[in-house]
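quick q for whoever's on today - can somebody do inverse folding on this one?? i tried earlier but teh output was garbage lol. tokens:
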């Protein structure tokens, strides 16, 4: 069964309730945008990050030097921050911009600000 994502302009609480009942397919406005391919370009980055996290697990299992472990954790955090900023950029330029043009800007901007607060 295909899952239908909640509208991007949907309030945060409703999105959380919808996420509990069935997983969203994503933002339909962003995903229908021709620039959606930019998201797919992030998959290799995420796979690299996944490998880094497995490396950290190995380092801990091997009881490696704490400073080296912390350095790797910092690298993973920085890499994830770059991915989140790239997604935020695409979402803002695509979905949020379109919602504002379609007179659904207030709710969408509120949602965007909530996301930014969580990222900080």
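ok took a stab at it. sequence:
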């Amino acid at each position: 069964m295909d899952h239908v994502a909640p509208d991007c302009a949907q309030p945060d609480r409703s999105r959380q309730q919808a996420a509990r009942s069935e997983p969203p397919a994503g933002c339909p406005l962003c995903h229908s945008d021709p620039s959606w391919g930019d998201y797919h370009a992030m998959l290799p980055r995420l796979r690299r990050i996944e490998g880094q996290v497995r490396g950290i697990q190995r380092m801990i299992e091997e009881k490696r030097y704490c400073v080296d472990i912390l350095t790797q954790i910092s690298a993973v955090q920085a890499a994830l921050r770059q991915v989140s900023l790239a997604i935020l950029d695409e979402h803002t330029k695509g979905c949020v911009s379109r919602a504002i043009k379609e007179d659904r800007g207030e709710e969408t901007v509120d949602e965007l600000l909530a996301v930014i607060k969580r990222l900080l």
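fwiw Helices lie at 12-21, 28-32, 37-40, 43-61, 66-101, 105-119. also Residues 1-25 have pLDDT under 50 and may be disordered. so keep that in mind when u check it
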